[in-house]
Design goal:
Radius of gyration of chain B: 20 Å
Number of strands of chain A: 32
Helix content of chain B: under 10%
Oligomer: heterodimer
Helix content of chain A: under 10%
Radius of gyration of chain A: 20 Å
Chain lengths: 415, 423
């Protein structure tokens, strides 16, 4: 089993040897992007796979491959049959690309010296690579924004968010994942003068900058169309707000409930679920004569911020808190059911929740149904006791999961 | 996070001899007990002998299980009873089980559930004669009748003595020493030790120690011929900085104080032979040499190393080496230098020492391992999956009789240690 923990030099040699084969593969690159998982929490950044409906579940999970990986929180982004993630090899934090079918490493780029865990956190990178249009965009825990060529891992351009934009390093390091919108890469920098910033994706040149908010936390911006207007939603320490992607113009804002939060979840009907440390809040965004307003529908100590996204399916929210899986009706804030699952993190694939335990080593597939908890598949995929703080990914019909020591690809579909 | 500590007056070797005599032949049921946080000597070490020294394979067998809803208090096992604290949605309560069968004997509600203590109660009961001393997360100190759990006397540490403690409630464990019950009562603005007459609950003394607060538990040591209570407390809150101080057992007079240059934790210090104190914080791990001279105690740092950082209970000491879990690794350190001798990935866990072996409970893997306490390397003798993998837990095991007692937030279990093939 070849390790993903490799020195950059060795990765290059491997690349040269494999150069011909890769070229051939590129020629037959899949044009079907509907099965990609191109960044944090999937194609629409709401932890939902874009696969066609009607998925037929197998009776059990089938392991495809397993590789060692180093410590880190970064998610697994999968585009065109290739996976991308970040980890610590013990000395350095690295961006790696691997073959999604075999797990074999394709290239490895040294990003920074490893960010050491402290006060309860673990070593390694935190944010998830954003992969789009042949480029990979990452942010290191110390605030290095790096653009790489997806095929080769060659650096294209970079910025030091602290030095260049006065960003303050959060206590546990930068965790924000970049967002691609057209020709721009948006990053929640968190500086006083440069809070949400857009760069030209090809050159790294500053396209626009904004300071609608103070500071930032560990969340990432998301794209949404609210009241018919495409916009970028960001959650900062003091407010939740929406801006126009093209120029960063502020459309609306609403005070944050508290400083600590995670990325917002966009719900049908122009609603946003904002998870905070102690509570979560549901906002309604409306527009009148082109002016936006955001109103809080409710605020509850439920579905609070954790590593896991909360997903929306068929009128209900499904999220993890204190090891419990909770099904909630967002219209009323009422809990439909709860079940102890020792999770972890979850995503939605068709009408199923794929739940990974935080230390149980277990992967469960559960019906996303408000009727009650129905487990369909349960599999031990990791050593119990080994921790995972990373949501699964779903791409090309496969489930990809990682913890602080291994990365595994599985199939859960029948046939 | 961990509290109670007690060091016997007799030298360790003499204690083993005494215990050995009381225990009789190897293989016979040991009468060893675990009456408080970190065991009879307050150092995570059992005086039992003849548990593993017959040699040969070790067999572990889960003999009973008892469900609870919440809590991480340690398990005190004395005679045929096991005592601990737990919580359900409404109450924080003290629980007594039959140690042989796991059946509930009594349950005493201490207070309404202290909501801010999300993981439930953390204080470990101290058992002495026919009394069980408990501290609820709401900071109520109670002496309960061991037979039926009825309240004999109580004090509200917050209302009566201004205990502010940690916002997650009182986690400190009480300590029995002679006629006294010693408790670290962290004030809102001032850290204090209090001693109560264990029979009546009358206040024996109050020591105005130092610093702001503290959530760890006191230990007892002899330094320079003076028996004293040693405590790890919080000198400042912002930035959080820990310290150690020693107070005279007879009247609580503070004899010495040492503030760390960095780091703090909720861990209980560990006393090592030769007047040394071992302390783990969130920042690092340290060993101090205490020098008592002419009524004064000097605190000399011996070494500072980066691992293991605080896991929740201190390492154990055996034959010149320290054994403990830091992060995902069980480690053996050379006590003279702090340098690691070996490391083994066992995932996060806590260990105690029984008859030259480590009983390592992995906190979330649900595994109990028996490992030789030797600097030669990691030598596992047995393992058993006892608790549900992934379930939350942060309690070190206890050992009494021939059994290992373990718990997590949802289950208490007993594991019988079998001798395997007798030689």
């Amino acid at each position: 089993m070849r390790s993903l923990v490799r020195r950059h030099r060795m990765g290059l040699c491997f690349l040269v040897v494999m150069g011909v084969a890769l070229g051939a593969r590129d020629g037959k690159a899949s044009a079907d992007t509907s099965s990609d998982w191109p960044g944090l929490w999937g194609p629409t950044r709401d932890a939902r796979a874009a696969e066609p409906a009607g998925l037929r579940l197998a009776g059990a999970a089938r392991e495809l491959w397993r590789r060692p990986i180093g410590s880190g929180y970064s998610g697994l982004s999968v585009v065109g049959g290739r996976g991308y993630t970040m980890h610590s090899d013990g000395t350095d934090d690295r961006v790696v690309a691997f073959d999604a079918a075999t797990g074999r490493e394709i290239w490895s780029f040294r990003l920074d010296a490893t960010y050491r865990g402290h006060d309860g956190s673990h070593d390694g990178p935190i944010s998830t690579p954003t992969v789009d249009g042949g480029q990979v965009f990452v942010v290191s825990p110390r605030g290095k924004l790096q653009a790489l060529d997806a095929a080769t891992g060659k650096p294209l351009w970079q910025h030091d968010l602290k030095a260049d934009f006065g960003a303050a390093e959060p206590l546990y390091g930068f965790a924000t994942s970049p967002l691609v919108s057209g020709g721009l890469v948006l990053v929640q920098v968190g500086g006083e003068k440069h809070n949400l910033v857009a760069f030209d994706r090809a050159t790294g040149k500053l396209a626009w900058t904004s300071n609608h908010a103070q500071k930032t936390g560990y969340s990432s911006p998301v794209l949404a169309t609210l009241a018919g207007v495409p916009q970028v939603i960001a959650v900062a320490a003091d407010k939740v707000y929406g801006v126009r992607a093209g120029d960063g113009k502020l459309l609306w804002s609403h005070p944050a409930v508290e400083e600590s939060s995670r990325s917002p979840l966009v719900l049908p009907g122009d609603r946003l679920l904002i998870p905070y440390w102690q509570e979560s809040a549901l906002l309604q965004v409306t527009t009148e004569d082109g002016t936006f307003t955001a109103k809080e529908l409710w605020k509850k100590p439920l579905l609070r911020a954790t590593y896991s996204p909360t997903v929306y399916h068929d009128g209900h929210l499904y999220g993890l808190n204190a090891g419990q899986l909770t099904c909630l009706d967002p219209a009323t804030g009422e809990i439909k059911w709860r079940q102890k699952v020792y999770g972890g993190s979850l995503i939605l694939v068709d009408r199923y929740l794929v739940v990974l335990g935080e230390r149980s080593g277990k992967l469960q597939v559960i019906e996303a149904s408000s009727a009650g908890f129905q487990e369909k598949i349960s599999a031990r995929v990791f050593n119990p006791g080994a921790a995972s703080f990373t949501a699964p990914s779903f791409a090309g019909g496969k489930v990809f999961v990682r913890n602080l020591e291994e990365i595994v690809a599985l199939e859960i579909t029948a046939g | 996070m961990r509290q109670i500590r007690k060091i016997a007056a007799a030298p360790f070797a003499a204690l083993v001899l005494l215990a050995g005599a009381a225990l009789g032949l190897a293989g016979a049921a040991s009468s060893s007990e675990w009456p408080q946080w970190l065991g009879p000597q307050g150092n995570g070490t059992s005086p039992a002998t003849g548990v593993f020294s017959a040699g040969g394979p070790v067999r572990l067998r889960k003999v009973w299980s008892f469900p609870v809803d919440s809590g991480w208090s340690g398990l005190a096992v004395v005679g045929d009873r096991l005592y601990t604290l737990a919580a359900d949605e409404e109450s924080d309560y003290a629980l007594a089980l039959d140690a042989a069968t796991g059946k509930e004997v009594w349950r005493t509600r201490l207070d309404p559930r202290y909501a801010a203590a999300e993981s439930g109660p953390g204080s470990t009961p101290a058992v002495d004669g026919n009394r069980v001393f408990v501290i609820s997360p709401s900071c109520r100190l109670q002496a309960l009748d061991a037979a039926n759990g009825s309240v004999v006397w109580q004090h509200h540490l917050k209302d009566e003595y201004g205990s502010g403690s940690h916002r997650r409630g009182c986690m400190t464990s009480p300590l029995v020493e002679g006629e006294l019950l010693v408790v670290q009562v962290s004030g809102e603005t001032e850290n204090r030790l209090m001693a109560f007459n264990k029979a009546s609950g009358a206040v024996a003394w109050t020591s105005k120690g130092a610093g702001r607060t503290g959530a760890s538990s006191p230990i007892v040591m002899d330094l320079g011929g003076v028996r004293q209570v040693v405590v790890h407390y919080l000198e400042t809150l912002a930035p959080p900085l820990g310290g150690l101080y020693g107070a005279q057992l007879t009247d609580g007079t503070v004899l010495w104080k040492h503030v760390l240059d960095k780091g703090f934790s909720f861990d209980t210090p560990l006393a090592l032979p030769g007047d040394r104190i071992f302390l783990q914080t969130f920042s690092d791990t340290r060993l101090f040499q205490m020098e008592a001279r002419e009524g004064k105690v000097a605190v000399n740092p011996l070494w500072v190393v980066s691992e293991p950082k605080t896991p929740g209970a201190p390492a154990v000491y055996h034959d010149g080496h320290l054994y403990g879990v830091g992060g995902d690794f069980l480690m053996c350190l050379d006590a003279a230098t702090g340098k690691p001798v070996w490391k083994e990935k066992t995932y996060a866990g806590l260990a105690i020492l029984v008859d030259g072996h480590l009983i390592v409970q992995s906190q979330t893997a649900g595994l109990v391992r028996v490992v030789e306490a030797t600097s030669a390397g990691y030598r596992e003798k047995a393992r058993l999956e006892v608790l549900t993998p992934g379930a939350p837990g942060n309690t070190p095991p206890s050992f009494a009789g021939r059994r290992i007692y373990v718990r997590n937030a949802e289950e208490i279990a007993a594991v019988e240690v079998g001798a395997g093939e007798p030689k």
